[in-house]
Design a protein that fits this description.
- The protein has a single domain (23-110), classed as Immunoglobulin-like.
- Helix content is 13%, strand content 36%.
- The protein contains 1 helix and 8 strands, in the order αββββββββ.
- It has one helix spanning 3-18, and strands at 27-30, 41-47, 53-59, 66-74, 79-82, 91-97, 103-105, 109-110.
- Strands 3, 4, 6, 7 and 8 form a 5-stranded antiparallel β-sheet that branches. Strands 1-2-5 form a 3-stranded antiparallel β-sheet, with no helix packed on it.
- The longest helix is centred in the N-terminal third of the chain and has 16 residues, at 3-18.
Length: 120
């Protein structure tokens, strides 16, 4: 077996072992019709994994630091998260962690100006 094949096989084994066994993988998505707003709200939906879920917001640039508060643990679905303490223009993503520690994230999205910035 050559090195490339061994590397590909090793990566597959690591992913297969890290995936939750016997359950639906955790996913999270943004359900809002518009981009999240500073001091506004977002609608998120999480499924799979093991409830409850805890949600966080992270900067889309390395080192992917958490921004603002976390939400949860919760079993709400969909979740309406209000009072997002993220400045306008921030490129960020939402992350969900289930009760077993499995992690899922949305694509990154840029926060738009909200009705106020008093929450910052």
């Amino acid at each position: 077996m050559n090195f490339k094949a061994l590397s590909a096989f090793s990566a597959f084994v690591v992913v297969a072992l890290a995936a939750p066994q016997g359950e639906t993988p955790l996913t999270v998505s943004i359900q809002s019709e518009t981009a999240p707003q500073t001091c506004g709200y977002v609608v998120l939906s999480a499924s799979g994994g093991t409830k409850p879920y805890t949600f966080t917001i992270h900067d889309a640039a390395a080192p992917f630091a958490q921004i603002g508060d976390s939400y949860g643990p919760t079993v709400e679905d969909p979740l309406v998260w209000v009072g997002l303490k993220v400045p306008t223009g921030t490129n960020a993503f939402f992350q969900a962690v289930d009760a077993d520690g499995h992690v899922a994230a949305t694509n990154s999205i840029v926060f738009i100006e909200g009705p106020t910035d008093d929450c910052l």
